[in-house]
Amino acid sequence: QLQLVESGGGLVQPGGSLRLSCAASGFTLDNYIIGWFRQAPGKEREGVSCISSSDDTYSRDSVKGRFTISRDNAKNTVYLQMNSLKPEDTAVYYCAADTWIPRITTAQSMCVLIRPQAYAMDYWGKGTLVTVSS
Questions:
Q1: Coil, helix or strand at residue 112
Q2: For residues 77 and 68, what is the distance between their CA atoms, to the nearest angstrom?
Q3: pLDDT of residue 61 exceeding 90
Q4: What is the largest CA-CA distance in the chain?
Q5: In the chain, is it the N or the C terminus that has fewer CB atoms within a 10 Å radius of its CB?
């Protein structure tokens, strides 16, 4: 079955850390641009961190210096290391992979999309919930 599966979410106190994983099955991630997106209750989905097939990365300003995206092609997995978490990071986190949408050519171009769920990317995961609360 061709799919992306996110894992690693959970409840963490402010200032804590989590590492999210996005594992691909049925296909290899090598040539894909991969993005982590999040959607908080009542808010639009937004790009968090994205990585190109050549390992260029882009992160939104609010997470720069705290979140790091990386990929391990041998494990067919992309990670999002999240440090110094804040309550405003609480959201469902999704990963997505794309190779064909003309507008998506770089990590930045994927991450700055408005309403990214409206784009027919190759794959979307079902999401993992991150809750930052004391």
A1: coil
A2: 14
A3: yes
A4: 43
A5: N
- DSSP state at residue 120: -
> pLDDT of 77-119, one tens digit each?
999 999 999 999 999 999 999 998 999 999 999 999 989 998 9
Instruction: Label residue 120 by pLDDT band (50, 70, 90).
Output: confident
Amino acid in position 82: M
Q: Considering only CA atoms, which of 62, 65, 30 is closest in space to residue 48? A: 62
Residue 47, both tokens: 């790009």
Give me the count of residues in the chain: 134
- Of the candidates 12, 16, 4, 133, the one whose C-alpha atom is nearest the C-alpha of residue 79 is 4
- Using alpha carbons, select from 18, 24, 19 the residue that is nearest to residue 5: 24
Quick one: the chain helix, strand, coil %, rounded to 5? 10, 45, 45
Mean pLDDT of 55-66: 97
List the beta strands (DSSP E) in 30-134.
33-39, 46-51, 57-59, 67-72, 77-82, 91-98, 123-124, 128-132
